[in-house]
Amino acid sequence: MIPIIALSALASIFSLHVHAGLRVTLGAVFLIVGLERCKKLPVFLTTFFTGLAVVFLRIVAQVVFDKFSFADVFNYSVNYSIEILFYLGYAFFYYIIVRKNSATYKSPLVPLLIICDFGGNAIEYAARYFLLRPELETITFPVILAIAVIRSVLIWIMLKYFFETRNG
Fold first, then answer.
1. N vs C: which end of the chain shows fewer Cβ within 10 Å?
2. In the chain, which ranges are continuous DSSP H helix?
């Protein structure tokens, strides 16, 4: 579990800039690849600690690379900590839709992951909207859907071409 958490947190510092204002972070990609490769890992525990590690590492990166003051660190801590809701929301949907899917004819993974990602992002977006100043949120639901599609396809590519899925 610890390697997946560490790799996901490290990957969360990097992002793909796909379009103006459209940035896809990679922490969730490595988390879900790890959960898919190691089916026995506890989804909620792994995801919760990954969310904490992501927040911690992003704050450290801001301090080290951007030389932020204590007040800036506090503001970023509040902003980043809401991202834990994304990870927990993703875990909730992933656990129900992917992990506990006992259907005889399984749906393809990418559409299921899109639902999980979109759901997690919608929860995070709602929290940011209600807890922070709504006018600061400029992201729209089509952008959230685009991010979910990109991240889900990246997960599928990594699982299909770079890692073989295993049950242990």
1. C
2. 2-12, 27-37, 43-66, 70-81, 83-94, 109-131, 141-157
CA-based nearest residue to 111, from 119, 100, 121: 119
Question: How is residue 81 written in tokens?
Answer: 């900590």
**pTM, full prediction:** 0.87
Average pLDDT over residues 118-140: 79
Per-residue pLDDT, averaged over 64-81, amounts to 75
**Residue that is written with structure tokens 């770079």 in the block:** 162
Contact 55/77 with Cβ under 8 angstroms?
A: yes
Using alpha carbons only, give the angle 52, 46, 21 rounded to the nearest 5 degrees: 55
Per-residue pLDDT, 138: 66
Cβ contacts of residue 18 below 8 Å, gap of 6+?
24, 146, 150
